[in-house]
Fold Diaminopimelate epimerase.
Amino acid sequence: MIYAFLKVHGSGNTFYLYNTNDENELDWVHLTKWLCDKNNEGGADGLLLVLPSKTADAKMRVINADGSEASMCGNGLRCVARYVCEKLGKTHANIETMKATLHVKEEAQIFESIPTYAVEISPVSFDLSTLPMVYKNQTEIKHQIIEEFSPSIKFTAVSVPNPHLIGILEDRNISDFTHQEQLAQFLNSENDYCVDGINVSYVYPLKNDTIFVRTFERGVGFTNACGTAMTASALVSNLNGAVDAEVVTVYNPGGFVKCEVKQQNDDFQLTLIGNATFTAEYEIDIKQLDYSIIEIKETKEQEQYEKCINFVNKELTALTS
């Protein structure tokens, strides 16, 4: 039987997107592992399922490349937001996710004619039990050196609701992947700190309203971008004085986004704004656990996004030279 999938990306974080009324229609774990295999048209970082919801305009599930399920995905949510809004002929919608129903809306283009959407990132918690994470007898880790992780990097742990460990770095550290990779692999294998693993992001402040973020994503590895990680990084950078703007430009290996950080007492309102690019439609023949790609219909949207990448590279060169 032939099934139609969209290949999409937010900031280079690539997914297949599939709309279905039957949550148990296919073996999503087995299918996702096959779709994300880099030998199959470059693979992807995960599968986005768009499903009916009793409480919102649609429901989103996120299956990671390794078959695990994420509670949220900011980059994926932007793509689902565009799909749902265009399908319903609306400029805004509510999307049910694992932990919360989130508001999404069409936004002014972030770069030339690139489709752009703003999505709510919530809930936010610094309580280690929400990640979950254990460190000595602490209930929070905020801008703190953890000797077991690094003698010089200050870390903050936060769930949004995906679990994140954010390290603020100096220039000499951000260019070296080694330490981040070793720490992330350790925290995503059997360890005494993060029983379910954690996303590890290193952040380099560039200006009072601009940061660079690189993320090792739980269940995926190094990604071009992670939406919740970028938002969490903007929040942590704001709280610790690395930036002082309400709207933070976040550069990443896959492009850039805008993250809006608003705080009222202990309540945070976070918004992620960025591209929602549809690169191609795939027709895939699925026979039980046997898959084959029948046809690929590419769009022209990636060509436009490549202009954005060139812009980002020039900006990063100017800011770091």
In short: The two ends are 54 Å apart (CA to CA).
